[in-house]
Amino acid sequence: HSPVQKTLVDFMILGPGFARAGPRSKNGNSIISCDIYVQRFGFRALPLNPLKVYRRANALFFGILDGIGGPTIPIFFAFFKQRFLHKNSKPDTSITGISYGPLPRHKMDLFLPVGPCTSNKGEITPKVPVIIVFPGYSWSNTSLIQLYSPMAQTLCETGLIVEWTYNNIGKSGADPEQIHLFGFGAGAHMCCMYNTASILSGLSTSSSSGMLSKILPSSNSNAELLEWLRRLRKPVVPVLGIILVSGVYSLEKQRKYEESRCIESISMSSRLFDNPDFAEAWSPLNIMSGIRKSGLFVSNSLFAKRVLIVHGQKDSTFPLELAQKLFQEFCLMDMDDVNMKVYANLRRIDPSVILSVQDALLAKSFLEDIRSAIFVDESDVENETENPQDSDKGHDDHDLSSDVEDMNDTDEDSQKEENLSNVLNGMDLKRASSNASSASSQNQLEPNTPLPKNSKPLSPVKPIS
């Protein structure tokens, strides 16, 4: 090809920055010399190292299992059977295509519950909780997939409103004091980052704002952290609760995990967060750990009041270890109500698939998790108000053994981390300042397993195949 043709090809493939001028010819004209680097595809794109070939094939195999393994195929079969063989008598309460911003992609769908919360004219009574759903699969995909509709409609059966964003909450008649963020996959990362931004925005206005530049170990990461914190338009208002399902909470650790599996070149997270400093600055787990280790005082008003973390035990896309570490960080920072549930023998948990069939055992168990995260257990409040004498009696008993109580209080702080580690290593989190429970009867805590402070027993869940 002529130099001009090479330049055009080079411009289309690599952009204008890759064409460089070569030596001048005898007539004084510049001869364009182009180095065209074409990305290899097909057979030549395969790694030559046999170990890399094995690791990449192994990651691909387990990635397919994460997508279609477990209950996915039976749930889809039940969904299509219910869709085509049974007439849907439930009214469609969705309001689609609501614009909440200036850009064309700023669209949201609003799902209203049917029942006592909605009048005949479609108006909503006050004090209705709100769930804002952050979709998963990709950080750059903002389209509204049709598969989300049955998930949202199923959530409405619990008496909730599902919103894709909390703009216009007042106009919808919802209670702005009962906002919950619900995210899975990449959406769980964004929900957790919102909670982290709420904490950092509160710290930036306090007297300890100078310590924010020393949270992360790398100076470049701290600079990136302060940069995106500076871009926040206004202080971030903390929400009532967050629900995180099969998410990634440390992009820096996720990057290392994918490099060990030789899939960093095809991973969406590695391509979007290719800079290690940038990945660390956008890792809520790293930021929360840095805040705790730096000794910064964080008021409980900056945290989400309730946190629920749900993960599959055999998830190979986003390892369970990162979710366990995030749960541990939340507990060590004395958040009000932190819960975690690990589904044994399940891989990646996709709510859009699970909640498409309401009668499935897995859907019922998952909905019960959401109810416990959204609504306060009224029986606990009634017991506290109706039986004040029992609590006084307990006080008297403690007075009789004050020496033992003082000893326990002294050792409580030192045993806190050890107890958390014991629970996490057992992978059976049972409402331990986390009301964590396992979906399998085979993975239960031993009777003498120590639990963290303020632990509450959770009702047993039926085994799920």
Automatic annotation (TrEMBL):
Biased-composition ranges for Low complexity?
432-444
Q: Which SUPFAM superfamilies match?
A: alpha/beta-Hydrolases
Please provide the record's keywords in A-Z order.
Membrane, Transmembrane, Transmembrane helix
Start and end residues of each stretch annotated as Disordered: 378-465
UniProt lists compositionally biased (Acidic residues) regions at 378-389, 402-415
**InterPro entries named among the record's database cross-references:** AB_hydrolase_fold
- Tell me where the transmembrane regions lie: 59-80
Q: Does the keyword Transmembrane helix apply?
A: yes
Q: Which Gene3D superfamilies match?
A: alpha/beta hydrolase
Compositionally biased intervals (Basic and acidic residues)? 390-401
The question of whether Transmembrane is a record keyword is answered with yes
Q: What is this protein's name? A: Uncharacterized protein
Organism of origin: Smittium megazygosporum
